[in-house]
Design brief:
2 copies of one chain form a homodimer. Chain A has 162 residues and is an alpha+beta fold. Chain A has 6 helices and 5 strands. The structure holds zinc ion (4 copies). The structure holds a DNA duplex (30 and 30 nucleotides).
Chain lengths: 162, 162
DNA sequence: TCGGAAATTGTTATTTTATAACAATTGTTA
DNA sequence: TAACAATTGTTATAAAATAACAATTTCCGA
């Protein structure tokens, strides 16, 4: 174990990622419908996480009709399939950087520009699992978010994301 | 280091805890007013975290007049002073179990009964700090929550909190 | 002790996030 | 094609959080 998989992957190329999502859903026997696929694409195309209503706006720009439940249901599906993550401290959603194997992830969230970096540090996950186990607590999910300033914003390079 | 301070402390005795909060605020030169003190008491008296509107209901039972901003401002003060924590995944607040030294804490949240256990595992905190530092990310706060089922609920002892 | 600035609380209105309930449509299968 | 399940559309509402401004209280110096 000379190189733990803690590296924050770059955002995936949306094309490849979507093709992979198609394959994954087919394997699993679930339907990545037009709507769900589009929501996933919107999230993967966005440089920052998006709220449900921001996604809804994009869908409407597409010409599609819809209301909040439309978006929330698509998001629910994508969460179940591990294709996106919910950032609970922000009430926002972001496309997963390593879809395929289910995980909760850890996130570095810039409070200035909104950019997010996804980590998957097994040591952190394991420590939390151990703490839970020591207390006979059945751990079902983890929400781990670090709030602060990204390298770009520390250098004053970027002010605020669009 | 034979015994790291990762033990989840029991909820403090509200009387003692409030006296301590009084002292802390005096030291710091900030005012733990009637309202703020009462909100803190409500949280420490509650077996489970409370939402802002639930706190507002209790305040109204007290006979006090008020609206959401009243509660949110009190909560903001208590958060700043490290006397309470916000559980972002639940939109709820809980009294801190180890007030005095500022920390973000880690929380085991039971999805069945709502009970919460507060941990303060320095190793987890440190790992997150290290991950952030490795990416030149300035970490300002951490949100660490584990969702699942508490020991009581696993044994079917308790169904749902009031 | 009086008056003015600052901090705190009250009040009204609104925004933002999320869900409930039911109808319409689409897909699947017998 | 008829029946059934899954998905999406639609309307309405609930729940969480904040904006803006007024009233009150506290603090401090004149
Ligand atoms: Zn991921
Ligand atoms: Zn940034
Ligand atoms: Zn605490
Ligand atoms: Zn429980």
């Amino acid at each position: 174990m000379f190189s733990l998989d803690t590296a924050a992957s770059p955002p995936p190329d949306p094309r490849q990622a979507l093709a992979r999502a198609d394959a994954l859903c087919q394997e699993r026997g679930v339907r990545l419908t037009e709507l769900r696929r589009r929501v996933l694409e919107i999230l993967w195309n966005s440089p920052t996480p998006l709220g449900a209503y921001a996604i809804l706006d994009v869908l409407r720009e597409d010409g599609r009709t819809g209301a909040p439940p439309t978006v929330y249901r698509a998001l629910e599906f994508l969460l179940e399939q591990g294709l996106i993550h919910r950032l609970t401290s922000q009430s926002m959603f972001t496309g997963c950087r390593q879809p395929g194997s289910r995980h909760d992830g850890q996130f570095l969230i810039c409070q200035d520009c909104g950019q997010v970096d996804e980590l998957n540090n097994p040591a952190i996950e394991e420590l939390l699992r151990a703490e839970a186990a020591a207390r006979e607590f059945e751990a079902l999910a983890q929400r781990v978010e670090v709030l602060g300033r990204c390298p770009d914003c520390r250098r004053g390079a970027i002010d605020h994301a669009a």
